[in-house]
Design brief:
single chain; mainly alpha; ABC transporter involved in vitamin B12 uptake, BtuC; 13 helices; about 0% strand; membrane; transmembrane helix; ABC transporter permease
């Protein structure tokens, strides 16, 4: 039962796909299906990181700001002053390293405050979300930074075998995440900590280390998602990543990842991402105004919670 529980979202995905085929004959075209996967790539990468943290029973809502800040700082250091940069014009590969490095530092700081200082993860990461967004706006002065070199845009713009590289990369990251959670001591420790942190500690698990590395990994993935998004847009915008955390939480919850920790599988998170991506595409093809999409997301989350509650059995994880 526990091996297929997260796949309960699959019927919903099939239903949405059928509706999409009825709404528009273009829905099932290869170009549109590729578009769905491409537009879901950044969300999927953030969801992987968020899943790591949720499995421990913690939360990080600052990931969306890391998506915007990390590539913004890198682009600011990368491009000439004449087009909005600082003027240092660092090497593009160095800029890529800075992007990931910033993500890791943000995760390390969040993890330290939550694990070592014992602050509430929601409040800490809410403060960080606001702080990082403010820094992003301050650096960019509300402007879009463009003129990014090809190497910096590569992961978001390249195509491998005729398919966007972002789709391949996201699929590989989901596969790696699944293997980590299933076959490594670190992955099993995430579940153990989410189930009972004190029992995990008594069993010899380095709880603090595992928690902090989960925050670092999640923020590094968010920074990489920002790099990928910058490549797709060929620019870094001041509002990049805004509200992404709500979609990420929605995908995780829909996919069966429990906010209380200790339960959920990466395949369920993937199903949640695909459902939201497909749903957004269908609503767009149907001409539904963008501002109604968030309302639909909320309804889908509530439905997923109800289905999960009704389908849950005491003692089953």
């Amino acid at each position: 039962m526990k091996n297929v529980r997260e796949l309960s979202v699959l019927p919903g995905l099939v239903i949405v796909a059928i509706i999409g085929a009825v709404v528009s004959p273009a829905f099932l075209s290869a170009a549109n299906l590729t578009l769905i996967l491409r537009q879901s790539a950044e969300l999927g990468i953030v969801v992987i990181g968020l899943t790591f943290i949720l499995l421990t029973g913690k939360l990080d809502i600052s990931l969306e700001s890391t998506v915007g800040l990390a590539p913004m700082v890198a682009a600011w250091l990368l491009i000439p002053a004449a087009v909005g940069g600082l003027g240092t014009e660092i090497n593009e590969f160095g800029a890529i390293g800075i992007t990931i490095g910033i993500g890791m530092l943000v995760g390390l700081f969040n993890g330290f405050l939550v694990v070592k200082v014992k602050l509430d993860p929601f409040i800490v990461t809410l403060a960080m979300l606001i702080l990082l967004r403010g820094i992003t706006l301050g650096i960019s002065e509300g402007k879009t930074l463009a003129g990014l070199p090809e190497a910096f845009r590569y992961v978001g713009s390249a195509r491998w075998a005729g398919i966007p590289a972002a789709i391949w990369i996201t699929g590989i990251l989901f596969l790696i995440a699944g293997l980590l959670l299933r076959y490594t001591s670190w992955g099993r420790a995430l579940y153990a900590i989410g189930g009972n942190a004190e029992a995990a500690r008594a069993a010899g698990i380095r709880v603090d280390f595992v928690l902090i590395t989960a925050f670092v990994a999640a923020s590094a993935l968010a920074a990489f998602a920002g790099l990928m998004l910058a490549g797709r847009l060929a620019s870094v915008t001041s509002g990049m990543g805004e509200n992404l955390i709500f979609s990420a939480l929605a995908a995780a919850v829909i996919g069966g990842v429990q906010l209380t920790g200790g339960q959920g599988r990466i395949v369920g998170a993937l199903m949640g991402v695909l459902l939201l991506g497909t749903l957004t595409n269908v609503l767009t093809l149907a001409g539904v105004p963008t501002f109604w999409i968030n309302a639909v997301y909320g309804a889908v989350i509530l439905l997923a919670l109800l289905v999960g509650r009704l389908g849950a059995k005491p003692g089953v994880r």
